[in-house]
Amino acid sequence: MSQAEFEALGELVIGAIQQIMKTDFKMQEIWLPETADALAPKVNVFVSDDFLTNTERCLILIQGTGSVRAG
pTM (2 decimals)? Predict the structure, then answer.
């Protein structure tokens, strides 16, 4: 498997996992920073549906980079 094929496979896995996070676990995807600048660097963050109202607990998962950033 070439590096390009490995990276393409990684992108497919990332997409599948992030879709599961949104559909099965009802997480919301937020892009930060929230800016209209299309060229500004952004990162997607996934939060629970009660993120803004749950004052009892918070779990933070910090993802890696490259093929391990699925969530």
Answer: 0.74
Which pLDDT tens digit goes with each residue over 29-64? 988 888 888 888 888 888 998 998 999 998 877 777
d(CA 41, CA 37): 9
- Taking the C-alpha atoms of residue 69 and residue 71, their distance in angstroms, rounded to an integer, is 6
The CA distance from 29 to 21, in Å, is 9
Contacts of 62 by beta carbon, 8 Å cutoff, 6+ apart:
none
- Stated as kind and residue range, the H or E segment containing 28 is strand 28-32
Domain range list for the chain:
3-68
Average pLDDT over residues 11-37: 89
Q: How far apart are CA 58 and CA 3, in angstroms?
A: 37
With beta carbons less than 8 A apart as the criterion, state whether 45 and 61 touch. no
